[in-house]
Amino acid sequence: MKFPSFSEISKIAKRRSAGGVLFDQEGNIVLVQEIDGSWSMPKGGIDEGESPLDAAIREIREETGIRSLYPLRSLGQYYRPTRKGKKRIVFMYLFKVENQKLQPLDRRNPQAKFFSFEKAISKLYPQDASFLNKNKNLIRSYLK
């Protein structure tokens, strides 16, 4: 499957975000709590001149406090509506984390926690849950 280029996608979606699926040795997934109490995978806006991967790493560090981040691979992208109903493209990357203390640095994300895969799916917005579930087997392949 060929993904559209970053510049092609940028023309379609007005808002661009990047983030990551972070998992530990047991396959638990890191979620961050939003200020409204909802949970999401760590992600945020891509700054001007910033690559999606660099934005993902910056946002993950801000929202989880994890300093040592090593991307395993790109998971592709998906569309998600913004709170204002506009279309947002989200670029996602896969990260494995080991023995990391979660301590958010961003006031907009008061908490970060590990959840079992199934519990994480149940806490996410439908588009996020669908994307995570679609990548379930790939994530589990890294646990072996």
Instruction: Tell how many strands the DSSP assignment holds.
Output: 7
Order of strands across the main sheet? 4-1-6-5
- Compute the CA-based radius of gyration: 14 Å
Are there runs of 5+ residues with pLDDT below 50, and where?
none
State the share of residues found in helices, binned by percent.
25-40%
Largest sheet: 4 strands, mixed
Tell me the CATH architecture.
Answer: Alpha-Beta Complex
Give the name of the CATH superfamily.
Answer: Nucleoside Triphosphate Pyrophosphohydrolase
Shape: globular
How far is the N terminus from the C terminus? 25 Å
Sequence of secondary-structure elements: HEEEEHEEEHHH
Q: Could you give a short description of this structure?
A:
The chain is an alpha+beta fold and 144 residues long. The chain contains 5 helices and 7 strands; from the N terminus they run H-E-E-E-E-H-E-E-E-H-H-H. Strands 4-1-6-5 form a 4-stranded mixed beta sheet. Strands 3-2-7 form a 3-stranded antiparallel beta sheet.
